[in-house]
Structure formats: structure tokens, C-alpha cells
Amino acid sequence: MVEITDVVCPLCGCVCDDIVVEVEDNEVKKVRGACAVGKSKLMGHGRIKSPAIRANGVLKDCSYDEAIKKAAEILAAARRPLLYGWSSTVCEATKVGVELAVEIGAVIDNTASVCHGPSVLAIQDVGLPSCTLGEVKNRASLVIYWGANPTSAHGNHMKRYSYISKGYFLPGGKKDKKLVVVDVRETKTAKMADRFIQVEPGKDYLFFSALRAILYGHEDVVPDDVGGVAKKELLELADMMKETPFGIIFFGMGVTQSRGRHNNIINAIQVTRAAHTHTKFNIMPMRGHYNVTGFNQVCTWETGFPFAVDLSRGFAWYNPGETAANDILWRKECDAALFIASDPVSHFPADSIRHLARIPVIQIDPFANPTTEFADVVIPTAVSGVEAEGSVYRMDGIPLRLRKLVDTDYPSDEEVLMRILEEVRAIRAKEGE
Amino acid sequence: MSELLIKNGVVYDPINGVKGEKKDICIRDGKVVEEVKNPKVIDAEGMVVMPGGVDIHAHIAGGKVNAGRLFRPEDGRRGLRPRTKVCMPESGYSVPNTFATGYRYARMGYTFVMEPAMPPLAARHTHEELIDIPILDNAAIPLIDNNWMTMEYVKSGDIDLLAAYIAWMIRATKGYGVKVVNPGGTEAWAWKKNCDLNDAVPYFDVTPAEIVRALAEANERFEMPHSIHVHGNMLGHPGNYEVTLKTYDLVKGITPYRDRPVMHATHTQFFSYGGTTWRDFESKARAIADYVNANEHVSIDIGSVIIGDTTTMTADGPMEYSLHQITGRKWTNHDVELETGSGITPFLYSGKVSVHTLQWAIGLELALLTKDPWKIALTSDHPNAGPFIGYPILISMLMSKRRRDESAKEMHSVIFDRAELPSIDREYSFYEIAIITRGMTARTLGLHEHGKGHLGVGADGDVAIYDISPEERDAGKIQKAFLNAKYTIKGGEIVVKDGEVVSAPPGRTFFVTPECESGLMDEMTAKLKEMFANYYSVSLANYPVQDAYVPNPYEIRAPWRS
Which among A30, A382, B4, B514 would be 20 to 30 A from B477, CA to CA? Predict the structure, then answer.
């Protein structure tokens, strides 16, 4: 039995890095300090056993060489290929992904496209006054979760970083802090809150606007009821925000993917700026997958743009609405797709999925998921953070290095992509001759 | 064995005192040598030959640079260039992607760039980007001034333990030295406050002045190649030149480890302001230059303005917020626990605005009024006063009084009332340009001992060849020549030919390893462990930058001075 400490968890955007894991016979036997979902990921479960190529509608096992060759042939022949996913793998894989996208003139996009993509658009409009999670832990006496339910989605978030954690200036932990939850229903997180504000579905934008007006000193324009919330409650919330020496709003997909989308987030950020005229106030998206942030970082420094990047012109063209994964799928432009470390078939709109059924699909993933059912080539890989190491970025942009805990025969995502890229280059070199 | 001979060029190699002599340069296996036997030959007849450029201060990699790229797709679109056989696609103007950063510097004849502000907690990010910047050798300086540990040791007056802490930090971040940015003020910014030089930092009971002095002393405990690198308090405030001079005075009398200043004061243009408000704002470049002329313990870089739109970014969070309040443009802030912060906002320098016109004049005045070019470096604090791609404009301004006069005529008339620039006749020579872009910067960073910034035997084979006559005084031609080198040679390999990148090998990352006595290190580490156990949001074991992030390392050891 070997005990490994300071293990970095490859599950959600919290990227907890204080996990203790016990390994015996090259298997993770025990996990301490992770939340239930993180633990399940680290312990391992149902894997894709072998590479496979679909023939006559049935996936048939094959060698890695055959699967990689087939994948390369599909991509080299495509006129409008899509490389999508990336949020549950390491930055080293993304770098090869960008290189591959440049080589074949692909659209490269990640799951932010259907998650916090609207947050990125909002940041491009107004910026993001934010901080690292340790700042929240040490200083934030007011924590607001908005359209986010960390007790279910980010198990250790409150304990490690926010409401329940003890900090330098807040040694009493939650005794020294106030928790406010704004949501359309009373979630588990809401039940813990000092104050729960239930807003009607689709009314967040109104709510933000009213709060912003109050924080800027225009409470007279606010009606008695805003999205099902009494003006009195809004005034009290505004007072709490003004009075805290350091406050933070964490927002989730309850606001990014409900009606209003990026407009909600622009408004939320402007609420933060309004509060910032009174005191120190911050805002942070509750990024989902452990490296969804990392893809956006790498894609930005390598191409200049964070997601939905079209490289068909030889230079990077960024225009979400035109160049995101779903844009080229439901316009039926895309003629081949590579999905890595994601499950678009579970999350994309029906029109996109219908088109996926018509085009060749390559999947690179340790685990089978509904996308596997659509895949023509399946290439299983090592689980990053368990069987392979690499860089990831926490939801607050802090880079950490995933550790390798056990050995495996599966190749890493990076390795598979590199081999596909080499194979594509070989095919194109031959065509060139 | 690869050999290269650059013959017939007019060579400017200030570190070796070569002032425009017709001289051959021989390179074998990446290094300058006495002679070569069977070389590839470049005929540089009638051209200007200099060592590869060394930029002392440009924000090219890391969290805030990338936050700038991410929130400015409109900047990304200015500078799109498709891939080539050897190049990845380029994007961006003030915040270029990593590949464009490498290619553009190389096209201008630069081969080394210092990233001057690495937040220690996010150091891995800085290094990941440096890996993706082709061609350029590089290094990064970690921010160590607003750190809680720093302030506690400053308060207790324990310079040796502070030295142990900075040694640990520089090693943990694979960094190059000690960076200071608004000491105390950035910590105060976590509470939306700021600090002047002698204000107490909230809760920590030390002053910025004490922090600067203590860090300068601690830095000199080691044989560090570079002095502390300082962005002081009150950047960008009218009347701040007095604070600036007081900051310089703080470190007077500290003995440097070798013949170099004890403080490098960076982007000094932003610190040379007179007046009390933006209304009576005026240039105080003369006062700053007089001080630098009269003293040996401070070096400066100019941080000169390039007219146009740019993206400002600094660990000086309160400054960026003030700027955002002035312009109303988008604003990103990112405070980093126990260490530092950062702010980013776009900014347009306009020649029609009086303040911007004066800022533009101040940067050039600093360069023209500082008598000894070995004390100043050419920078634009990229991208704060303008993107590095504007350096050739600045060079042409410094070399041509006529160009300055023509520009001044187009700008706000305030330049004739509250700036000295129009009355300055000095023009830089090619030799002096070589000093402020190569010799001085390499020497100030201590890199001349490691092959950078000169062409003596044993130096790196980094050479820039500009297609311009040494007699040329036409500003337009000068600008054009410095924008696109005829050849740039990096480590003996031709990377740019006729202004185009023809090869893009990876650069090396230089880092310093300060060596500290183990007793001191143990005592400091005990306290550090407490900080990690209680207040950091990451584990101590996951904090130091792993070797994987420095794939092409160049280590400089800095022994403890006995």
C-alpha cells in the first residue's frame, strides 16, 4: 500500500489539490478528502477496453495503429472538420489539438461553448473584476452563489474556498461570513444560506438591473416587485453588499444558460462594478470541468481567442454564432468531427446531433458515453490525473499539475493526438507529391 | 559543426566598445568565435550589425497578458496573419498571441525578452506561455513585494530571513530576480485602498518605503545578476516625481554585489509627472534625469508612449481601476492571494489629448536628457505605453530631431508649454541605440556574462543585421530598417531573412538559483508551511514550478555573499 498525498483532483473546476490516495497493486483503493464525485473519478470505473472502428453499424475492436490511421484519414479528407471537447483533459493535449486544427484548417471549440461561453462573451464586453479563491477564503465576509448549486456540482467549493473555510481575516470561518443564495428553487446550497432569494425563472436580468440601480443610488426607480422578489429584500441585499469589506458573487449555469444568457452576465458584472464603488467586490464563474478554463487559456495564448476558433482561413477567426461547434453543425457545414474528453451527444441540441449521425465522428475518451454510440472511430486513452500527468487551470485561473498515480497501457490524450497529427501530415505530404 | 560568417558589416557592439567598425563576425555551433573555416557567408556590406536585441521589460506571457487577449478579441483581429511553412498563425496588436510575439520580436532583431511580472502562484502559467513563444530566449521576474511573508519579515527587520524567502520564491517560480509593483499598495487594493510611499499597509504595519529598502538589501545578500526591479508607488499620478525620487533615495548606500545599480526603476515615464491634477499636469523628466545623471545606484527604462490604442496591464490593481474610471472602458481585475494582484483595461493614447501628448514627450525626454545611455533602456512597458512593435518608431524619434519636431506639430500644443522636448536637439547615434537596446539591458540584467547583448568571442551567436547605411539619418528609413531586419540570427541559426521568419526554434528560459544557508532556509520554511496550511488555497507540495515547465533551461547560480 502506497499513500500519495497532495493529489490533484481531475473532476470539477475546484481542482482540489489536497487529496490523499492509497494505491495497491497499481489500483487506487482509497481516496480521502475528495467529494463523492471526485472520489468516484479517482477510484475509476467502466472504461472503453479497446480502440474500435465502426463497420456496418457495429463498433469492431481494432489496434491503436488502425484506429489512429482511420482517424487521420477522416480528418485529412475533411473540408470542414471540427475538433471539440477538451475540458476534461490536460493543456498539453489542447496544444496538440491547436496544432492539428491549424494543420487541417479546422474549427476548434470546447465545452464552454454550451456552458460558460456566454460568460466569456460578457467578459469581452465589460471585463471581470475577480480574484483567486484564496482571496475569497481569507477575506470574503459576504459570499453570494447565483444560479449555482455547489453542494451538488462543486462538492468542496464552500469548504475549501468560500463560506465554510477559515481565513486569515476571518478566523471563525462561517461564523464570520454571510452566505446568500439566489436561485429559482430552494437548492441544498440555498438551505444553508443566511439568506435565500428566490427569483422567478428567466427574471435574473431584471433582478440584476434593479440591484444595480439601487447600488448606484437610484432605488426610487425600482418597482415593489422584481422577478417575484420584494423591493425590501433587494434593498437589504444591496445593504449587505455595501457593508461587507470584501464580497464575491459566484455564478453558475443558472444564469449563463437561462434566458438572457451573456446579457445576464454582463449585467451581473456591472452589478459587481456598482458594488465596487462602495467596497471591494468580485465575481467569478463556477467553471464546471476541471480544465474547461485551461482550454480557454491555451486557445487564447496560442490563437488569440478563447473558444469557437475557425482556422480554415489559415489564421484564427473568432465569431461565436458563426464559428462555434453548434453553428457549423446545425448549418450542416461540418463534415467530420473529433470529440475528445466530452460528451456532446448528451448536451448538444437535437439538430446538431442529427447532423452528427450523418458525418464521420472520432471519439477520444477514457470512458464510454452517449457520444460513443455515434462514433465511427473510438480511441480509448489514459485518465488524466490518475494515469497521466499534465497542466490544468482551476476556475480562478490558477495552474496546477495533475499527478500520475498508477501505471497504464492506455496512451495519453496527448500521445494519441500527436500520432494522429503525424499521420495527417504524412497523408498530406503524400498528396502534395 | 555549423559555421556562419557575417562579413563586411558595420558592427555596433557597445559592451566590447565596438563603435561602428567594419568587422567580420564568426559563429560556430551557436557561439561567436575568432575564426571559421568553411562557413556559410552573409555579406553585410553597407549594413548595420548589432548583437541580438535584449528587452529588459515587456509583458509578453502569463495570466494577465492572457486575460488581456481573452477580453480583447477586437485587438486579436488587428494583426491576423496566416500560417506559413514555419510559422503558426499570428493574431493581435497590443496583445499578440505567443507565436506572433516570438516572430515579431525576431523580425525586429531581438533575441531575448524579460517578462517582468510573474505572479508566483500562477508562475506555471507564465512558463507555459514562454514555452510557446518561439525563437526568443527569455526569463521572468516573480513579484515578491506585496507578499505577506515579505511584509512580516520587513516588519520584524529580519533581512536574512527575507533573503531566504526570496531565494525560495525565485527557485520555486524558476524566476530571475525580485520584482516590486506598488509595494504595499497592491495588498491594500484587496480592500480597495492604496498606499503612498510612507503610508502603513493595512493590517501589516509596514510602509512601502520599508519594503523597498528591505528587498534591495535582501537581494544583495546573493550574487544576483540583476538588482531589484521596481515599479514604485503612485504610478500615473500627477506630481508623482517626488515620490519617485524619494524611492530612488531609499536604496542609496546599499552596496551591490557587483558593478551594477541596486535598483532598476522601470517604465519611468509613468513616474515623472509634475502638477497637482490632470489640469496642470507637466513633465518632470528633467528632475528625474538630473537625479539619474548624478547617481550610480539607479538604472531606468523609459516606458515611452506609442500613440494609438493599447491594452494596459499591471499588478498595480488600484492604478488600473483609476484608469478604468477615467475612460469607462472594460476592466478586469485579478487579485492573487497572499502575493499580488493585477488589473487590465484598454487605453487609447491620442496626440490630440494634452495629457497623452505630455506622456509621449516625457518618455523621449528621459532618453534624451539622461546623459549616459548606459543608465537607460528603451522600452514601452509593452503593452502599457504601447506595443513593442512600436520600438522602431521610438528609435527613429530618438535618432531624428526633425521627426520629433514634425510629430510635435501634429500634437496638442501643450507640448510647447509644459514639456522640454521641442527644445532638445540631441540625436541618438546607432551606437547609442545599440546601448539602450542591447548593451545596457544585457549588462543591467547580468546577461552579458551569459552570452547575451554582445558579440565578443564566446557570446551567443545572436545577431541582428539591418539593411541601412550607418550614415542614414532619415527617420522613415530608420524605422523601416529596425522593424524588419535583413537577417536575425539566433544561436548561429538564421531565423529571419528579409524581414520574414524562416526558422522558429524554441527559446531557452534563464532562471536564477539563489543559494541560501540551510539553517536560515529551515527557519523560513517552518513559517512558510504555516502559510500554506492555513491561508493558501493550494498545497505547498503542488506550488513550485516543476521541471516540465522549463524544457530548455539555462541556470544561473547566485551564491550567498560571505
Answer: B4
| pLDDT, tens only, B229-242 | 999 999 999 999 99
Contact A161 B537 (CB under 8 A): yes
CB B148 within 8 A of CB B338: yes
The CA distance from A19 to the nearest CA of chain B, in Å, is: 10
Size of interface A-B (CB pairs under 8 A): 183
Q: Per the domain annotation, does B533 fall within a domain? A: no
Asked if A279's CB is within 8 angstroms of B344's CB, the reply is no
Nearest Cα neighbor of B211 from B171, B164, B153 is: B153
Nearest CB to B539; choose among A6, A127, A137: A6
How many structural domains compose chain B?
1
Closest C-alpha among B505, B510, B375, B488 to residue B51? B488
Q: What would the CATH number be for the domain defined by A47-113+290-432?
A: 3.40.50.740
Q: Is A432 exposed, middle or buried (0-12, 13-18, 19+ CB in 10 A)?
A: exposed
Single out the residue of A359, A311, A372, A369 nearest to residue A331, CA to CA.
A359
Residue of A nearest to B337 (CA): A135
Contact B334 A167 (CB under 8 A): no
Q: Does B39 map to a domain?
A: no
Kindly give the confidence (pLDDT) of every residue in chain A, 433 residues in length, as a single tens digit, with 9 standing for 90 and above: 999 999 999 999 999 999 999 999 999 999 999 999 999 999 988 899 999 999 999 999 999 999 999 999 999 999 999 999 999 999 999 999 999 999 999 999 999 999 999 999 999 999 999 999 999 999 999 999 999 999 999 999 999 999 999 999 999 999 999 999 999 999 999 999 999 999 999 999 999 999 999 999 999 999 999 999 999 999 999 999 999 999 999 999 999 999 999 999 999 999 999 999 999 999 999 999 999 999 999 999 999 999 999 999 999 999 999 999 999 999 999 999 999 999 999 999 999 999 999 999 999 999 999 999 999 999 999 999 999 999 999 999 999 999 999 999 999 999 999 999 999 999 999 988 6
In CATH, which of 1.10.8.60, 3.90.1150.10, 3.40.50.300, 3.40.228.10 is domain A117-285?
A: 3.40.228.10
Task: Say if residues A214 and A234 touch (Cβ distance below 8 Å).
Answer: yes
Among B65, B69, B332, select the one facing A128 at the smallest CB separation.
B332
- Whether residue B523 is contained in a domain is answered as no
For residue A370, the distance in angstroms to the closest alpha carbon of chain B comes to 32
Nearest CA in chain B to A105: B83
In chain A, where does the domain assigned CATH 3.40.228.10 lie?
Answer: 117-285
Nearest 10 degrees: Cα torsion B333, B337, B341, B345 = -10
Output the nine-digit C-alpha cell for B308. 494609438
* CB contact (8 A) between residue B82 and residue A246: no
Interface of B with A in 431-470 (CB under 8 A): none
Q: With an 8 Å Cβ cutoff, are B73 and A120 in contact?
A: no
Interchain pair B192, A276: CB under 8 A? yes
* CATH 3.40.50.740 location in chain A: 47-113+290-432
Residues spanned by the domain of B308: 57-390
Whether A127 and B331 lie within 8 Å, measured CB to CB: yes
Distance CA A23, CA A32 (A): 12
For all residues of chain B together, what is the average pLDDT? 98
Q: Give the contacts of A275 (CB within 8 A, at least 6 positions apart).
A: A215, A241, A242, A247, A281
> Model confidence over B510-534: pLDDT tens digits?
999 999 999 999 999 999 999 999 9
Residue B483 in any domain: the answer is no
Yes or no, beta carbons of B539 and A17 under 8 Å apart? yes
pLDDT of residue B562 exceeding 80, the answer is no
Closest in A91, A132, A296 to B128, CB measured:
A91
| CB-CB neighbors (< 8 A) of A300 in chain B | 66, 69-70, 97
DSSP for B372-401 reads: -GGGEE---TTTTSS-GGGHHHHHHHHH-H
